[in-house]
Amino acid sequence: QVQLAESGGGLVQAGGSLRLSCVASGSIFSINVMRWYRQAPGKERELVAQITSGGSTNYADSVKGRFTISRDNENTVNLQMNSLKPEDTAVYYCSAFILDLARRNLGLWGQGTLVTVSS
What is the pLDDT of residues 86-96, one digit of tens each? Predict the structure, then answer.
């Protein structure tokens, strides 16, 4: 069984920073792209940032210059969030496309971690 687990959410004042982490575990052969999404109350889930196995990154316009996505290793993706704004308040989800040891392609989601930015 393969799963994703996020950590690092919490409450922070506007202008502050938080670092989210997501670890993939289980019978993993390889991981392609890893992404962070977020969903604010009453809004649709949106892509925040992604990073490929080769290290290429992309960001939503709303977070460019403030957020940085990185991979510590094959199975861990981080999201460093600086200069946080109240509008960044949301549940943040990690997702990944994983090839497991049985060579099955899996699209997985973590359980989500809440980020609350107070004004």
Answer: 999 999 999 99
- According to the 3-state scheme, what is the secondary structure of the chain? CCEEEEECCEEEECCCCEEEEEEEECCEEEEEEEEEEEECCCCCCEEEEEECCCCCEEECCCCCCCEEEEEEECCEEEEEECCCCHHHCEEEEEEEEEEECCCCEEEEECCCEEEEEEC
Q: How far apart are the first and last CA of the chain?
A: 41
In tens, the pLDDT along 8-28 reads 999 999 999 999 999 999 999
Q: Pairing between strand 76-81 and 18-25?
A: antiparallel
User: The dihedral of CA 55, 56, 60, 65: what is its sign?
Assistant: positive
